[in-house]
Amino acid sequence: MPSPTPLTLDPGADLRQLLTSVRETLAADTAVMLLVDATGAVLEPFASSGLDVTLRTGARVPIGRGFAGAVAGTGRPVVLDDIDAGEVVNPVLRRRGIRSLLGVPLVRDGAVFGVLHVGTLSQRHFTADDVQRLTDLADEVASWFADQSLAEHHTAARVLQRSLIPTLPPSIPGLDVAGRYVPAEGDLGGDWYDVFALPDGRVGFVMGDVLGHGLQPAVVMGRIRSALRSYALIEPSPARVLQMLDRKISHFEAGTLATVLFAVARPPFDSFVVSSAGHWPPLVADGRSPATAVALRTDTMLGLLPDRTRTDTVVPVPEGGSLCLFTDGLIEQRFGAEQAVDPDAGLAAVAASLAASRTAEASCVAVLADLIPEHGTVDDVALLVIRREPT
């Protein structure tokens, strides 16, 4: 048997190259990486070196059963010097002529997310040194994979959010509308805003925040956004729309929590009907003095009590006045010498910035310039300014 090559992985290599390095380091004929699926019940082949047919057949291994399933189920290495003496669920391994297997768990943040195993075409006794070597390599592969997954999820979330959040809100006669979405310095979340026309002449305005970070909240945000638009076509009351949305989330998106502010108005836009599901109330400005928070009942956030009755509030907006919707990331910046989170200070800063601006676009620029630190924000920020143009 050839002596193992030195233990080393190139962090700049792709996954197939890393698995080839694993195979060569252990002087093995195959190296396979399996990942726990979304249900947490089975392992699915993800990548391999020397056993590509494994991926094409898509053989799934129940956790707790067979060789790889035992590795994932126990979180410990498993050695099979002769696979004929043990249970191997994947028939491809036998058909390929594999005789001996060594598998170790892939672990990240204390949880097993997959299995890395190597195999040989000739019978071999894997030693304690082999086990340690593969365990060390698995740690490197796990770290590489986590970094790559984070980057890919971040990119996917950015692409998804860019496709769903309007850079330029639709032109609405009688209104001057501008919005901004500022991603956090790190994982993206589920913040969004939306502006859409309805067939009866009304216009809908949405500000929302799906709790969590990464790709999944962004995906859920897309589904919530689409559902809200659909319900708004058949239900004129924002409160009823949010109640329908809450039932949908509680049933189909179990475990999801979100805050949403939904407002509708029709020309001449002298009043808006607003309902809040756990979201910060909007600010209203008259164009002369600092903006003030709307006296709005804040109902329960979505995902908690789907049968709870929700309320609508009529909010008057004077000619030349503005309505400002935002997510909590905007006002929960750190203020003062102690750099403490002070939402009241954040609200005051937004109110002052709105009063000093004459257009919706200028308001967005001023608010973000005054509140977002130069080093970036730790939470996503969504902002929507709706200004009623003078007749």
UniProtKB/TrEMBL annotation:
<feature type="domain" description="GAF">
    <location>
        <begin position="10"/>
        <end position="160"/>
    </location>
</feature>
<dbReference type="Pfam" id="PF07228">
    <property type="entry name" value="SpoIIE"/>
</dbReference>
<dbReference type="Pfam" id="PF01590">
    <property type="entry name" value="GAF"/>
</dbReference>
<dbReference type="InterPro" id="IPR001932">
    <property type="entry name" value="PPM-type_phosphatase-like_dom"/>
</dbReference>
<protein>
    <submittedName>
        <fullName>GAF domain-containing protein</fullName>
    </submittedName>
</protein>
<dbReference type="InterPro" id="IPR036457">
    <property type="entry name" value="PPM-type-like_dom_sf"/>
</dbReference>
<keyword id="KW-0378">Hydrolase</keyword>
<feature type="domain" description="PPM-type phosphatase">
    <location>
        <begin position="172"/>
        <end position="388"/>
    </location>
</feature>
<dbReference type="InterPro" id="IPR052016">
    <property type="entry name" value="Bact_Sigma-Reg"/>
</dbReference>
<dbReference type="InterPro" id="IPR003018">
    <property type="entry name" value="GAF"/>
</dbReference>
<dbReference type="InterPro" id="IPR029016">
    <property type="entry name" value="GAF-like_dom_sf"/>
</dbReference>
<dbReference type="GO" id="GO:0016791">
    <property type="term" value="F:phosphatase activity"/>
</dbReference>
